[in-house]
Amino acid sequence: MDEEAIGLAVDAMYAMISGPAGPRDWSRQQEVFHPDCRQIRTGVDERGRSWKQAFTPAEYRVNADLLLAQMDFYEVEIRRETRVFGNIAHVWSAYEARAAPGDAVPERRGINSIQLYKGEDGLWRIIHMIWDNEREGVRLPGSILPVAPGSPG
User: CA 60 → CA 78, 88, 95, distances in Å?
Assistant: First the structure.
């Protein structure tokens, strides 16, 4: 039951960020994200130095709407690993980003590291999320790549 509820929260997160150019539908943000949530975008600059940008849920909503105002963006999960212990869970979620849902080649791939907390109300909410994209020297590990149809695993 917990893994199903966790999966629904992660699915809702992907649904919120994906869509045609313009503002996103944030109507479910409060039920999916804990009020204390931090979402952290990471990357490297032109010199290869690491950077991060952290957001509260409200800050993320504003930032995402600005970024996606003129851009179609669809983030699709390609593989998920979930671990649960008591009231905490960790989801290692590999994704592909596309300008259109049917694009054969993604514009980028990466991993969302998502931590969830089961509150006293019994609901699982994302309390922390950090992500990074593939780049030269940083590729998705084979263990998280999608499994081909008919393959074991």
Answer: 23, 23, 19
Tell which wins on pLDDT, 144 or 51: 51
Classify 74 as helix, strand or coil: strand
Segments in 18-136 forming alpha helices (H):
29-32, 57-68
Please determine, for residue 70, whether its predicted confidence score (pLDDT) is greater than 90: yes
Q: Name the residue among 142, 135, 140, 136 with its Cα closest to residue 113.
A: 140
**pTM check: above 0.85:** yes
pLDDT confidence of residue 151: 47
As a whole number, the mean pLDDT across the chain is: 93
Residue with tokens 């590291």: 113
111 SS3 class: strand
Q: Name the DSSP class of 147.
A: P
Query: Residues 6 or more apart from 56 whose CB is under 8 A from it?
Result: 37, 38
Sequence-ordered list of residues with C-beta below 8 angstroms from that of 91, at least 6 positions apart, any chain: 6, 10, 80, 81, 82, 112, 113, 114, 115, 116
Cβ(69)–Cβ(22) under 8 Å?
yes
